[in-house]
Write a structure and sequence with these properties.
By secondary structure, this protein is mostly helical. It folds into 3 domains: 70 residues; 77 residues; 80 residues, no CATH class. 52% of the residues lie in helices and 5% in strands. The strands form 2 sheets. The protein has a 3-stranded antiparallel sheet. The chain has a two-stranded antiparallel ribbon with strand order 1-2. Helix 2 packs across helix 3 and helix 3 packs across helix 4. The chain starts with 9 loop residues before the first helix and ends in a 35-residue tail after the last helix.
Length: 284
């Protein structure tokens, strides 16, 4: 079997993409040897489940040929049970659902995207209370448990009138590494899937666009940051409202369900001037 050759531009692109991930690993104590062993498992798993021939599972030898992982390691890794984590953890998924209701459903919002402060207890606010909000989504989870966790994560605050205020327009915890890591895994994975699809598939591409400039001042960057935070959030809220309406009006059978991710991000860093080309001289 002849393996496909990769484009010369692919490895430099992969190296560039890996830099922030390596930065994260080094800051959190993940070593090269530890990650390399994990990466072997990923290579073997993807080759096994996504590169079969005629619907038949590939042999250890074929996986070894495809991945470059030694056949003994392939056999060992295929025998080891792996835990699949396809969706968001339940606590994060529940939090996102709860925030969505608060943002979009009466009587918890003034209008879509304008959440109201809620009395903490049903005895003070009735249905339009934090107790009522939690009860609308789940009868099995106590509102006090949710409130304590959200206070820890910085999702809400309580004022001196014992009213609960939503501090974020989406369930994006301000604290709590595990919760942030769940979104890191979900969002970066789906963005990468869209980008890889657009590089490797011939069908209709996923929408993936960005705007980039390299000569902005600090004040210009701050103005753009504020605009993205305000206007971008409103755009995502509108998509959230549309998705919720479509899910309610056109719910498919369980076997036909599809999931979507719509993202928006902003990043900035210093952009040092390029080194002058000695052949062209220095301009002033």
């Amino acid at each position: 079997m002849q393996l496909p050759t990769f484009p010369p531009s692919l490895l430099p692109a992969l190296l560039h993409v890996m830099r922030p991930l390596v930065r994260l690993m080094l800051r959190k104590g993940v070593t090269y040897s530890g990650f390399a062993e994990l990466l072997k498992g990923v290579f073997v798993d993807v080759a096994e489940h996504e590169f079969s021939l005629d619907g038949k599972p590939p042999t250890d030898s074929r996986i070894s040929l495809l991945t470059g992982v030694h056949r003994k390691d392939v056999k060992r890794l295929r025998a080891k049970a792996t835990v699949k984590q396809d969706g968001l953890p339940e606590i994060v998924s529940f939090g996102a659902q709860l925030v969505s209701v608060w943002l979009n459903a009466a009587p918890f919002c003034e209008r879509a995207g304008r959440p109201l402060p809620l009395p903490r207890l049903a005895s003070a606010g009735g249905e339009r209370s934090f107790d009522g909000l939690v009860a609308k989504v789940s009868k099995d989870i106590r509102a006090r448990v949710v409130l304590d966790e959200w206070l820890r994560l910085g999702v809400v605050r309580i004022d001196d009138q014992d009213q609960v205020h939503l501090e974020t327009m989406a369930f994006v915890p301000q604290k709590g590494f595990d919760e942030k890591a769940a979104y890191f895994r979900h969002n970066l994975h789906d963005h990468a899937c869209a980008a890889v699809h657009n590089l490797t598939e011939s069908g209709e591409p996923f929408f993936e666009r960005s705007v980039h400039y390299d000569s902005l001042s600090n004040s210009g960057v701050e103005r753009l940051r504020d605009a993205v935070r305000a206007d971008g959030m409103q755009l995502l809220i509108a998509f959230n409202q549309l998705a919720g309406d479509l899910e309610a009006k056109d719910a498919p059978e369980p076997e036909a369900r599809k999931r979507i991710t719509i993202g928006l991000y902003f990043y900035t860093e210093p952009n040092p001037p390029a080194e002058p080309d000695p052949k062209k001289g220095r301009s002033s």
